[in-house]
Amino acid sequence: MDFVDRVTLHVKGGNGGNGSAGVKREKYKPLAGPNGGNGGDGGSVILEASDNANSLLDYRFVPHRSAESGTMGLGDTKDGSKGADVVLPVPPGTVVFEAKGGTGESKRPGRQLADLSHVGDRYVAAEGGIGGLGNAALANKVRRAPGFALLGEPGEERDIILELKSIADVALVGFPSSGKSSLVAAMSAAKPKIADYPFTTLVPNLGVVDMGEYRYTIADVPGLIPGASEGKGLGLEFLRHIERTEVVAHVIDCATFESDRDPISDYHALEAELAKYADRLELPMGVIPIAERPRVIVLNKADVPEAKELADFVKPEFEKMGLAVYVISTVTHEGLDELGYALGALVSRLRAGLAEQESRSEQERVTIRPLEQPALRRRRGFDERRSAGDFKVERQESKSGDVWYRVTGLKPERWVRQTDFDNDEAVGYLADRLASLGVEDSLRHSGARPGDEVRIGKGDDYVAFDWDPTISAGAEMLDGAQLGARGRDLRLEEGSDGGRSHRRTNAERRRDYHEMMDARTAVREAMRQERSAGHWADPAIADDPHDENAILGGHEVE
Asked: Which fold has domain 6-164?
């Protein structure tokens, strides 16, 4: 079979590139400032409804899909490149569910994540990680020389379930061997498998019908028998394919040899199964409930005399129920044109009504857009009802008596992922950020003491460390001497090196030049006066007889 309507897909977004901690160097300047670039964002895995896809078969054979990671930032403030997105085409009508189930267990659908019902609909299944900031972006007026950069975030990784709910205009339902597949083949160019035994149709068959000005699709839904809701036959495995249809056509076999069956009882039995299935559905907005969709009765196999007679007999009974009835034969094509035009007109009216309803809904819908869209809002897991800065501190204890404090929240968890714990200055920067957010105060109020274990993150994906509220980051060290607070360097401080780090103006250069020339003139005048007084004129004369370091050894020459 080349038709697959449910697959489990493992998707992973690309990792963000690490930031660079570069230092710009210029001639005559020991340190010209940080110039590390930012890392590139990772690519995302995106699902897109495409009319070129008609099955999920490709994802059954290749269930692991990953996007490209971003590259690392470089020196000279060169940012890394963004990883390429991976766009996965899926058929229109694909619904995305969260996969539930432990490791090694079969996955089952959980919360619905997206409904790709129209061509062009997109859903980001796995978002790429954000690239880390370089030290040039981390520099500010206070922290002028950061000696670290932030790491890129890992891309999102999870399992999802794709479930195809075919979008057809008319759904053909009926007992096995009632002629549904034959009707699809007779009215369209589809070539489904047809045989004279039950459950020949194991997968839905779709066909496109062209009847004059009308063009619509019909779907053959297999496996519907009384008790299907309890798992009999093929169960309700394929009934999801009629959830998006507009018309339900009952194809009834009038030439059946089973004594306990007749067209009226067949209709009521199938309607009972549809009602049980409809109670379980949560249809999206704009979709007509199954119970309210128009019904059409198709009495098939009129080429058999006994079947023709039975069809003519039960037709008035169906019409009394307010149902449109058509007597056809897929062998001789009797009544197919009448049925085709009638279905086309019905579908056309329903489409016009739905379009008007959607247009009216769009006009009534009020869209409120905030003035600002913080970058944090685009991250999955952000709760719109809470602030991005919210966090929670909980005291937890194991059965063995071990106690720790768990910190969860969007910002703390992200900051931990971005920290290079091999760099003392980066660890100190993390401590500053957590303290400014109020994490340390919350730990104190929760009863934490210095030395207690603190875990930041959910579940087993956490970073643990011993809490030290007085932690100080390693400032940049030169020759073993601390030259300033964290993120500062005295070589960048104005006036700390005699003005070498300050670019002088032309006026300052002229002033310094004149001061230097005046000083030289003063020195020359002082030396001239000393020569005029006879100082150092004769090396044989000791100016200071008590000077033991004198040339004459600290005594007068005889």
From this structure: Spo0b-associated Gtp-binding Protein; Chain: A, (2.70.210)
CATH 1.10.10.10 fits 388-475, yes or no: no
Give 109 or 541, the one with higher predicted confidence.
109
Is 301 known to sit in a ligand binding site? yes
Annotated binding-site residue? 331: yes
Task: Please indicate if the annotation marks 220 as binding a ligand.
Answer: yes
Q: Give me the pLDDT at residue 85, please.
A: 94
Q: Is 140 annotated among the ligand-binding residues?
A: no
Annotation-wise, does 300 bind a ligand?
yes
Domain boundaries, the chain: 6-164, 168-361, 388-475
Angle, CA of 325, 327 and 329, to the nearest 5°: 145
Report the SS3 class of residue 433.
helix
pLDDT level of residue 15 (50, 70, 90 thresholds): very high
Please tell me the predicted confidence (pLDDT) of residue 488: 54
Paired strand residues for 207: 218
Q: Is 179 annotated as a binding residue?
A: yes
168-361 fold: Rossmann fold (3.40.50)
Annotated ligand binding at 203? The verdict is yes
| Residue 348, marked binder | no
- The Cα 337–Cα 319 span in angstroms is 20
pLDDT digits (tens, 9 = 90+) for 119-164: 889 999 999 999 999 989 988 887 778 888 999 999 999 999 998 8
Residue 95 dihedral angles phi and psi, to the nearest 5°: -110, 135
- Does the annotation flag 178 for ligand binding? yes
pLDDT score, position 11: 94
Q: Does 106 show up as a binding residue in the annotation? A: no
Rounded to 5 degrees, φ, ψ at 488 are: -120, 155
Contact in structure between 12 and 66 (CB atoms under 8 Å): yes
